[in-house]
Design a protein that fits this description.
Ald_DH_N, two-stranded antiparallel ribbon, EC 1.2.1.79, succinate-semialdehyde dehydrogenase (NAD+) activity, alpha+beta, Succinate-semialdehyde dehydrogenase [NADP(+)] GabD, Ald_DH/histidinol_DH, 5 helices
């Protein structure tokens, strides 16, 4: 298995307006078991937060105009990506939180419950 940092999923910036950005400052994320620095990640300050809020405000009208079914399809794809990457996400949670791997991977049960709600909302087209 690739290390966390070698994965194409590993990002240290912040996502706003559909793009990854670097912040003006960063902070260390450490493995609580070893004290090892896992990564330096974006520390969003006022400017970054305002940028993300403005992007969300611009995106909201298009999201609101989508049918419940269309939103459910987007969230279903998100759910599928989580399941496809369950092992990597479990490894990430174990490394950054000290959580046992089996427990971290087990959080997919919670995601499955969320997905069930999303799927039903999409089927009824009421959200």
């Amino acid at each position: 298995m690739k290390s966390l940092q070698e994965s194409e999923l590993f990002r240290t910036g912040y996502l706003a307006d559909g793009q990854w950005h670097q912040a003006a400052s960063t902070f260390d994320v450490t493995n609580p078991a070893t004290g090892e620095v896992i990564a330096q990640v974006a520390k969003a300050g006022k400017a970054e937060t305002e940028q993300a809020i403005a992007a969300a405000e611009r995106a909201f009208p298009a999201w609101r105009a989508q049918t419940a079914k269309a939103r459910a399809e987007i969230l279903t794809r998100w759910y599928q990506l989580i399941i496809e990457n369950k092992r990597w996400l479990g490894q990430l949670m174990t490394t950054e939180q000290g959580k046992p791997l089996k427990e971290a991977e087990g959080e997919s049960r919670i995601r499955r419950q969320f997905y069930s709600v999303v799927r039903r909302a999409g089927e009824t087209d009421q959200w």
